[in-house]
Amino acid sequence: MPITIFRGLSLALLALTITSCAVLPREHDVPLAGLNCQQALPRGYEVRATLQVSPAEQDFLLALGTAPERINLALLTLQGVPVYRLSCSDGEPQTNVQTSVGEKLPPLALLNYLAMIFMDADELSKQLQPGWTLRTQTSERFLTRPDGAAEVQIRYQGNAPWFQMIELTDSLHGVTLSIVILESFRVLPE
Asked: Across residues 148-170, what is the average pLDDT?
């Protein structure tokens, strides 16, 4: 009798493990390997932007400071309610989620998308997972897997580094980000 219970418990745990692994994204489904957030964004700027996340059709406000020694990012609802904060001072991101609205676009996912958008193309190529490639054109970037099962497409309008409008489409995860830069200004070190 105890062996039968043990076998039943083992099968239940195995089934639970298999189903939970199927829900988690596989490592090669994400274009960027271990991201160092200090390399992700142009340094020395204060930026304000709006961000629309589809298919959730939610709009957010994004405040970003990229001081030479620290990156600070805050995501807020249009009503000004804090969603989450993300900061990096040693290359590793620290997050502070303040409301469940942030589940639509988790902080580390947003940081990865911002890195794909703003990172220098040469540096971005070095950060890609094996099998992913980067192709750039004048106002577009394409990150693709060779099997064609996943693609991230980025379209830019305006001048670098903080373009007026950016649209990122992630075909694998069904996410579209539309970013409109409201203002950006260079902050000179004292």
From this structure: 91
